[in-house]
Each structure stands twice: as structure tokens, then as C-alpha cells.
Amino acid sequence: MQSLIDSAELMLESGGNDGEVFEDLRIWLTNERNSPELLPGGQRLESMIQRARSRIELEEDSLLNSNEYSEEYSLRVTELNRLKYLVTNLMRTRLIKLELLCEYVRRKEVENINNIGNLSMVNDREEDIHAALKIVTPSEWKFLQKFCKLRTTYFENSFVNQLTNPDMASKGQGKDNIVPYIEPDWFKFVFCEVVEDLGTVTLRPFDARPENEDEDELELNLPKGTRFLLQYRMVRELLFEGKVKLV
């Protein structure tokens, strides 16, 4: 299994194997469902989805023009429906998380844009902005911009902005000068499976607070196939490197 960033390149390879593409989509969907944050996608993920859609359309046309209703035909229809399911559910899962974590994701992406070549969200080309995205796809970025504007414009001073725990909010606009700003639950426990022999690994918590200097590191022996339960912040780095997958 490749890293989360590199795995999206799989569908861009002209000689890519359909079985590998299907398996990579399945793993990505499982990781996305179980992780508390929106996993990094960017333009690579968008290209991956577009390539999958193209394959779906080609297969649908091929089946439509087929006059044989054999066992092979039934298998092809089944596999086509499985691919549709993976693509649709991956997009739906990311959309749900994007709505929940909208302010957090937007601020992180604005930081990414500002850190690359001093891009200006007002003056620079849309293509350059999209190239700087690390978490969302270009299509998700457009949705995110509109969604955040919608909440600020039409839900200010409404009950929607009162539902957020003040301890998880940051100062901004809205009722009592607070806009919902929910971070991913880094302390969520997740089940993981090791996909390659890692030997003895020292796990360090992601997003450790400066005030918690005594947060412990964890040393584990992780042979291939090992399954374990840990807080997400402890395995995030391994997940991004493609060394473990969530189950």
C-alpha cells in the first residue's frame, strides 16, 4: 500500500491494474470513514475520482451495447455497481466531514495557500490556488467556500451557531462573536492493521499540547498483519505514510 498522497496516482497510470485501483479505493474509503479528520486529497484525489467515473461510463456503454446476458455479463454488472458504491460513498463520507469541520479545514487550507509562493486568494489564478490545496479537492474547495459564506451570511445569530461547545470554538462572527470551529477528535480510538513489517516503532502523539510536556511516547513491535487499538493521534503519521490502515 502506498502513502495517502501517492496512492491517488494509481488511477493516473495508463497501465494501472483495475484490481489494484478497486482495492486502493476500498482502503481509502475505510480510512476515511474511521479517521476523525478529512484525509488529504487535493488534485490527486479529484483526478482519481474522475478517472473512476470515466471507467464507469465506459463500462456502462459497453454493457449497454452488449446483447449477451451471460454469467460474465452479470459479473461485470456486479463489479460496476461495486465501483459506483465505492466512489459515491467516498464522496459522501468526505462531504459529511467537510460540513462538520468546515471552519477548521478552511483555515488549514488558507494556511497552505499562503505558505506557497505568497499566493493571493483574490488576485491569483484559480488553477494556482487549486494546486496549493492539500486536504480538499478543487471541487470540495469550491463547495467549502460557498458553505462557509452561507453559514456566515444566513445563519448568523441563529441557533445553529449556538450548538457549538464554547471550549471548541474560536472567536469570529455570529452570535456572541462565536463561529462554530470544531477540530477533529485526535483522541479518538481507532483499530489499525499493519500492512508491512515495521519492526520496533516509537509512536509520538500528533498535535501534542505544549502544556503537556509529559505526554508519553509509545514503543511497539509491529510485524505485518498486527491489529491494535490506539488513539488516532498516535497512529496518524503511520497512516499518512501508508504503513497502517484503519479497520
Automatic annotation (TrEMBL):
UniProt keyword annotation of Cell inner membrane present:
no
- What is any one GO biological process for this UniProt entry? DNA-templated DNA replication
Give any Gene Ontology cellular component. Answer: GINS complex
The record, for InterPro entries, names: GINS_bundle-like_dom_sf, GINS_Sld5, SLD5_C
Q: Does the keyword Nucleus apply?
A: yes
Where located? Nucleus
Alphabetical UniProt keywords: DNA replication, Nucleus
Domain DNA replication complex GINS protein SLD5 C-terminal spans what residues? 184-247
Pfam families per the record?
A: SLD5_C
Regarding protein family, the annotation reads: Belongs to the GINS4/SLD5 family.
Q: What does this protein do?
A: The GINS complex plays an essential role in the initiation of DNA replication.
For this entry, the protein name equals DNA replication complex GINS protein SLD5
Organism of provenance: Naegleria fowleri
